[in-house]
Design goal:
The protein is an alpha+beta fold. 33% of the residues lie in helices and 26% in strands. The protein has a domain of 104 residues.
Length: 153
Amino acid sequence: MSAATPAPTSYSVQLVLPDAITQPLDEWATGAEGASIPAAGWHITLLPSFVSRTGEATLTALLAAVAARHMPYAVRLSRIELVADRTRNGYAAVFLAERDDGQNRRLHTLQADLAESLAPLRTATQPGLNGAPFTPHVSLALAVSEKEGERLA
């Protein structure tokens, strides 16, 4: 009898929010029925879950090279949005999202650079998200009914 093959390690690329922002979000989520604090912490996903076709050292070096091409910048998310939950059919999600005024152009540029640079090395584990356009946001609630989402938004 052979041993089971371990599942491949999955990765995602995220911007983790600073404590000055996460503390008020934690307080809001704790008091808002239906909201949830993400297990990975409050973040903006730049690339959804994937399996790498290369080793972790190569992946880390490539991520560092992409990051080195981009200067720090401020990200602005200022709109609460109720959307269909892309990962759970029949449910809604509540996002803290950007306004459509180009204020996060540098974030979009970083995400496009990451997607292009890592494309040959990654296999998506959530195909429904893989072809979706990049929508900068912080998830405030996932897998909620539309009614719950409207109340939270």
